[in-house]
Each structure stands twice: as C-alpha cells, then as structure tokens.
Amino acid sequence: MATFTEIVEAIMTPSIPLVIIGIIIILGGPLIFHLVLASSSSYTVPPSVLLLGPDNSGKTSLMTLFERGANPSKTHTSQIAHSVELNASTDSATKASFRNFDDATGTHTKFLLVDTPGHGKLRNVAMGKLARTEKVKAVVFMVDAAALGEQETIAPTAAYLYDVLLFLQKRASSKGKDKASIPVLIAANKMDLFTALPATMVKSHLEMELSRIRASKSKGLLDSGVGIDDVGSEEQDGWLGEYGSEKFTFQQMNEFDIDIDVLAGSVSTEEPGADKWWWWIAQRVVG
Ligand SMILES: Nc1nc2c(ncn2[C@@H]2O[C@H](COP(=O)(O)OP(=O)(O)OP(=O)(O)O)[C@@H](O)[C@H]2O)c(=O)[nH]1
Ligand SMILES: [Mg+2]
C-alpha cells in the first residue's frame, strides 16, 4: 500500500497526464461556470416589448396605464429608457384586459415593457435598445393620431418609422435561422380627440409619407442616370419594402417576414381604451 509521502511525491512530480489534468481544470472550470450562468440567465431575463414613437405620442402614459391600471394625471417628456415587468396572458378569462393581470387564475408570461424617449435628440437611446434585439419580441410604435393630419407631425413621425422599419428589414435580410422576426404594432393613440384620424387613415397617411421619404432618399441615385436594374445590391439593401415599387405599403414588409398592424386606441379614456393593444402584445409575448 502506498504511503502518504509516496502519494504526495507522485502528485508533486511533474508528469504529462498530471499537467493535462491541471490544464483541463484551469481552462474548463471557468468555461463550465460561464455556460451554467449563461443558460440560467436566458431563463431569468424575460422577453421584452419595445415602446417606440415620437415624443408626445403617449408612450409613457401607456406604460403607466399598463403598470398601475390607471391613467397618469401628468407625464413629463422622457429622457431615458425605462422598463417595467408585466404579466401577459392569453387565457380567455383574462382576455383583452390589462386591468386584471394580477388575477392568479391561468398561466402568465412575464415580459418587460421598455419605454423610450421619443425626442429626436435622444433617438439613439431608442435605436440602441432596438439594436440589442435578442430578447425583443415585438415593437409597439406609438403615434399621435390627433396630430397626424398636420405636416409638422406626420413628417418626423414617418421619418422615425422609416428608420425603425429599415433597421428591421436589414436585420431580417441578414439574420440567422434562429432569430425570430419582430412584428410591429402601430398604435394610433388619442382617439378620444375629435381631430384623431381613424386607423385606416393613419395607415394610408403613413404609407404615403414613407413613400415620399423613400423616393427622396433614392432621388440622388436616379438623378445620376443609373437605371433601376443597374444598381448594386447595396442600394437595394437600403431600399425599404419592395424594390423599385412606386408606392410603399406596409404589406411589402411581409416579404421580410415582418407583420405590421395598425390599431386605434386611447390611453386617456376607457373607450376605445388600450385593450386592443394589450391583447396584441399578449399574443406576441405568449405565442
Ligand atoms: N387626449 C389624449 N391625450 C393623451 C393620450 N395619451 C397620452 N396623452 C397625453 O399626451 C401627452 C404626452 O404623453 P406622454 O406619455 O408623456 O408621451 P411620450 O410618448 O412618453 O413622450 P416622450 O416621453 O417625450 O417621448 C401627455 O400630456 C398625455 O396626457 C390620449 O389617449 N388622449
Ligand atoms: Mg415618455
């Protein structure tokens, strides 16, 4: 039987197998530790839904409504992103309402609702959130339907939406198979105001303005005398929707596996309220 000193001696004597075991422990330990942490964090970080849209459209108001079940009396223009954890359910009992999400009945899916600042100077905050898309399940793009009839509102609103859609399109074109596509809800808010455009008009106004932006972006290209068939794939990649089409429609985004819905509602009043939006979000989060 080996004595204690013999064992110690064997361990202390450098030998190839021992060195290999040592290297495995030193390199493998942290690696395993990392894998364990990484896999567990994917369970603890819930999916998120991004609230985008220009300033004054009602994003913070909507988030507060979902969080507290009550409409905030006053909001300030947001300067930072802010998220709250909510529970969504698609059970018929709790169907279409965020007011009873605390009910213990049925199954719930946790998700993060991320509010972003809408001001043009802080747009990078929102786009930064969008760029880290691993956990983004859906995008809610909020617009002020009551002010959308005015040129000074529709122009910046559509310009922002253009950037968001082009980002999603590029992401879809270059994505690996494991990345799910991100659906977009255009939430036409402030339907309680008499100047509010109905959802169909919000849709057509935005499509018209997006067509205009797209045309002006490609104008330099066309002016230079290059035919539409002569341009390289780089230019095609920068084109929103169906390449070469005259008019942009949201339906063209289906080509990139991006679904866009336009739903009308209001944060401030019970009717039409925000239930439709909540139901849309719940289906995307749970599904
Ligand atoms: N009439 C009416 N007013 C609303 C509605 N929703 C929000 N508002 C008002 O619109 C204003 C702007 O709302 P916010 O929620 O602060 O807008 P926001 O999108 O967070 O704006 P930023 O933080 O600047 O990006 C507030 O005065 C709200 O009270 C609505 O459904 N109807
Ligand atoms: Mg805000």
UniProtKB/TrEMBL annotation:
Give the matching Gene3D superfamilies: P-loop containing nucleotide triphosphate hydrolases
Q: Which UniProt keywords apply?
A: Endoplasmic reticulum, GTP-binding, Membrane, Nucleotide-binding, Receptor, Transmembrane, Transmembrane helix
Membrane association type? Single-pass membrane protein
Q: Where are the transmembrane segments?
A: 16-37
| Top-level division of the source organism's lineage | Eukaryota
Q: Which GO terms describe its biological process?
A: Golgi to plasma membrane protein transport; intracellular protein transport; protein localization to Golgi apparatus
A Pfam entry, by short name: SRPRB
Q: Does the keyword GTP-binding apply?
A: yes
Name the predominant localization.
endoplasmic reticulum
SUPFAM superfamilies from the entry?
P-loop containing nucleoside triphosphate hydrolases
Localization annotation: Endoplasmic reticulum membrane
Q: Name one GO molecular function term.
A: GTPase activity
Q: Could you state one GO cellular component term attached to this entry?
A: endoplasmic reticulum membrane
UniProt record similarity statement: Belongs to the SRP receptor beta subunit family.
Q: Which PANTHER family match?
A: ADP-RIBOSYLATION FACTOR-RELATED PROTEIN 1
Q: What is this protein called?
A: Signal recognition particle receptor subunit beta
